[in-house]
């Protein structure tokens, strides 16, 4: 069930009682109607970014709840799907901050393949109902993911946008890892997000840790 590179550090999580209850809950939800992302993409973020390759962890809240949108990476949507507002704001900040052109798509797999773990705190959602799977157990699992990265000898950069994400700060060893905090890029808090220069701070932390830089440009898909 878990991608191979994460089994050594998370392998006992699926055996815990909370995870059994969570799996039963999600199965019932899927039996009653659409749940996103599809079953095979629930752990897509962990699949795309192996444990030993994580340079940056960006924490989202829960998946997009519209049909065809979410595919298991936070803030990302499938090719051909309209770029959601929060991601549009991220792109605007990248343009203003680093000069990168705004792409014609919201598919963030190029980031994930460079070691940017795009992790949602909750990994499934009922169609049309944001936060509908909140408090069912996913948070315990993703807290374990955050702790696993924090316990790794190789340092990483944790990106906590918004109050929800910032509550995860106690899970992170801030003496060994860098943390970039700031406003969430959603339209509700975009005024505080714009101009906060998060990517400049992330890039500086990556360089200080001795890792290769991340190319934040997303190619156009036409």
TrEMBL record:
Cellular compartments annotated: Cytoplasm
Domain of life: Bacteria
Pfam (any one): UDG
Chief site of localization: cytoplasm
Molecular function via GO: uracil DNA N-glycosylase activity
Keywords linked to the UniProt accession: Cytoplasm, DNA damage, DNA repair, Glycosidase, Hydrolase
PROSITE patterns registered for this protein in UniProt: U_DNA_GLYCOSYLASE
Residue stretches making up the Uracil-DNA glycosylase-like domain: 47-206
Reaction(s) catalysed (UniProt annotation): Hydrolyzes single-stranded DNA or mismatched double-stranded DNA and polynucleotides, releasing free uracil
E.C. designation(s): 3.2.2.27
Annotated InterPro entries: UDG_fam1, Ura-DNA_Glyclase_AS, Uracil-DNA_glycosylase-like, Uracil-DNA_glycosylase-like_sf
Active-site residues, Swiss-Prot/TrEMBL: 62
Enzyme class name: hydrolase
Function: Excises uracil residues from the DNA which can arise as a result of misincorporation of dUMP residues by DNA polymerase or due to deamination of cytosine.
PANTHER family reported in the protein's UniProt record: URACIL-DNA GLYCOSYLASE (PTHR11264)
Family that this chain belongs to: Belongs to the uracil-DNA glycosylase (UDG) superfamily. UNG family.
NCBIfam families: PRK05254.1-1, PRK05254.1-2, PRK05254.1-4, PRK05254.1-5, ung
Name this protein carries in UniProt: Uracil-DNA glycosylase
Source species taxonomy: Bacteria, Bacillati, Actinomycetota, Actinomycetes, Kitasatosporales
């Amino acid at each position: 069930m878990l991608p191979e590179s994460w089994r050594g550090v998370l392998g006992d999580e699926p055996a815990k009682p909370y995870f059994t209850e969570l799996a039963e809950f999600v199965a019932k939800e899927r039996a009653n109607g659409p749940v996103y992302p599809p079953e095979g993409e629930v752990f897509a973020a962990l699949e795309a970014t192996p444990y030993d390759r994580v340079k940056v962890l960006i924490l989202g809240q829960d998946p997009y709840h519209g049909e065809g949108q979410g595919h298991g990476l936070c803030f990302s949507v499938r090719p051909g799907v309209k770029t959601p507002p929060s991601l549009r704001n991220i792109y605007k900040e990248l343009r203003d901050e680093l000069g990168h052109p705004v792409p014609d798509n919201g598919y963030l797999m190029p980031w994930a393949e460079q070691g940017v773990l795009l992790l949602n705190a909750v990994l499934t959602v009922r169609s049309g109902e944001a936060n509908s799977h909140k408090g069912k157990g996913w948070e315990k699992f993703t807290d374990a993911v955050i702790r696993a990265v924090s316990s790794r000898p190789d340092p990483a950069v944790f990106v906590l946008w918004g109050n929800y994400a910032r509550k995860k700060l106690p899970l992170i060893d801030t003496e060994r890892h860098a943390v970039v905090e700031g406003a969430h890029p959603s339209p509700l808090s975009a005024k505080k997000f714009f101009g906060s220069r998060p990517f400049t701070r992330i890039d500086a932390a990556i360089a200080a840790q001795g890792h290769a830089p991340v190319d934040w440009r997303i190619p156009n898909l036409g």
